[in-house]
Design goal:
The protein is of the alpha+beta class and 107 residues long. It contains 2 helices and 7 strands; from the N terminus they run ββαβββαββ.
Length: 107
């Protein structure tokens, strides 16, 4: 499921994500899809993506708002660290750890 939240912010809901590594694969695919030049007034505009990912162990439960709040926090951490990357966080653990990566690290 993909939905626009506001402005240029979208939410993608995926089931079955079990690790930060699986989330990274999704982030890289979203980034690759957005990477192409967008034609505008005879020129190609390049866009960057900043992504926040929150995932939950399938055996745990939490309110959707909690996942969304953590994903939003992860998004803003990505933006604060220079944009054009992604931040992941596991929800439902005692001390959630946010981990940020730049897409440039994967090129």
């Amino acid at each position: 499921l993909v939905a626009r939240l506001a402005g240029d912010e979208f939410v993608v809901i995926l089931e079955g994500m079990k690790s930060a590594e699986e989330c990274a694969v999704v982030a890289l695919k979203v980034n690759a899809a957005a990477r192409g030049a967008i034609p505008f007034e005879g020129q190609g505009l390049q866009v960057t993506t900043s992504i926040g990912l929150a995932y939950l162990d399938g055996s745990l439960r939490c309110a959707p708002e909690v996942l969304l709040r953590h994903a939003d926090e992860a998004l803003y951490r990505t933006k604060e660290s220079g944009r054009d990357g992604f931040t992941t966080v596991e929800v439902g653990v005692a001390q959630p750890e946010y981990s940020t990566s730049s897409f440039g690290d994967f090129l």
